[in-house]
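Example A, followed by Example B.
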Amino acid sequence: MNIRKLINTVGVVFLTIPLSVSAMQSPSLSKNLPSNNSLVEQRKTPPTSGTDKIVKEPDIDPMFTGGTAAMHKFITSTLNYPQEAIEKNIEGLVVYTFVVEKDGTLSNFNLIHHADPLLDAEALRILKAMPPWRPAKYKGEAVRAEAYLPMYFKINKNARGAANNNTCAPGSSTAKTDLNILANEEILSIVDQMPQYPGGEEKLTEFLSKKIIYPTHALQNGIEGRILCSFIVAKDGTISNIEVLQSPDPELSHEAVRVLSLMPKWNPGINNGEKVNVKCVLPIDFKINETPIPPTTTNN
């Protein structure tokens, strides 16, 4: 059995008050990122595919026009943290999926992880206000493709005093919850040097491949799909606050959380020369590349 796992660890878009905003491409936006020279070339409008099918694995993923820095600047200038949310000290993680159309416009917004209706609405408003993206390309043609963007809303404790509220609603599966780091520690999303699994992405892939046991029921019933998880890499490299943000099946969720809980300490993130706490997002694709195993029956 060959289980393909997409390993891409990134920070979420981090929205704070006062407006000190960091932004980073989500995993679906970070593969095959072009160089500055190729960005200039790709501004030319590519041929448009004749199909309206959403391509799950395009050759070049969709990207905010201008890249990460441009998206950061756009979000910084567009964000309007809801006043009621500030007064009630409401924080949390919001994740939307959406389709980048052939002309780069965004559509089909789907909320897959909510924090609070006020924050959910603001995140959607920002997405709808975005200019056209660079569309995905498949075999040289512009195609429709799905992307997702996590946004983490957090009120600056230095500006309003410490808050002891939990920062986001729990997902379908969680592990290693550390309320102290959530309430009393600064958690960043974009830093000078992002946290890294010891040995890098190749070793992380190897670790997950060895540790993941495809749940029997899911295997028998041909259940597969992407599990989107978040977790915090602390200053000392320990992993905490593992949470499933999106999942097609509870068994796959539990297995993803179980394995992530086994991870050793990471190399912590570095910002301004100091080790810092960083919130990361990791998608894991469970894929069955063979005929599902039939369940055991007692039929004669």
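Example B, a separate protein, is given below in the same form.
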Amino acid sequence: MKTGLILTGGKLDMAFAGEFLCKYAEMSAAGGQGNEDAGASAIEEASVGDLETDGAGAAAEGTEENGGCRGAGRNAAAAAARNYGFDCVILVDGGLAHAAALGLTPAAIVGDFDTVRPEVLEAYRTGTGKDVLWDVHRPEKDETDTELAIHTAMKLGCTRLVILGATGGRLDHELSNIHLLKMCLDAGVEAALYDRQNRVSLLAGSRIFRRDEVYGKYVSFIPMTERVEDIRLSGFKYPLYGKTVTIGREAGLCVSNEITEETAEIRTGSGVLICIESKD
């Protein structure tokens, strides 16, 4: 399974990004080479509460070169040189500046480059090798840059995507990015949006949540399709037994649930849900 990192041109908490990537690198290394489950385990482990650091403190202890990696035994330069364990890194427009600070090396650079500083773009143009794919578009286009980046990631063979910088800025882009997860789901690509407080993904059918691996205290389910039928929740504070939810009705029914057992499970009969794991 090939795991890709997409760094968008949106708002990015650099302290969080550095901590997240360093934790991912540690878990990927611990998982060993050739282990297809290592990437998934690393994503889960990089999501837990030890990333709840103070943003200012993390930035102060980190540097632009190491992206905020810190702590005994962490070789930030080596982690960055290996792209923190990701198989493929795709940079989007303004994300080029973030990537430079985090020490990431791109496999592809995508966008119309209307939000990146000219000197940053020129540095990438002159400093990257011929093996880097440039997917350049005009600003007047039907797709967002993040949508184009997802298409590029799929072309490069990624079957799992971690997307940073897709939330916390313009609401229109954030909602669009959540809807892009449906494109991933339809293509059989496991994808999620991450920020300091939230992990956003889609689910259809069933999923098991482990209490020690969930991203935060709260788990919410919001319909992506018009109807989601026969929702069954077990191991949660608020269980459900065959409930159907519809967009625009009973909006709070599946919001801010909590896991009360070691594992919890959701099953659905039809439809697609937005799953938001969050912490205060």
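On Example B: The first strand starts at residue 3 and ends at 7.
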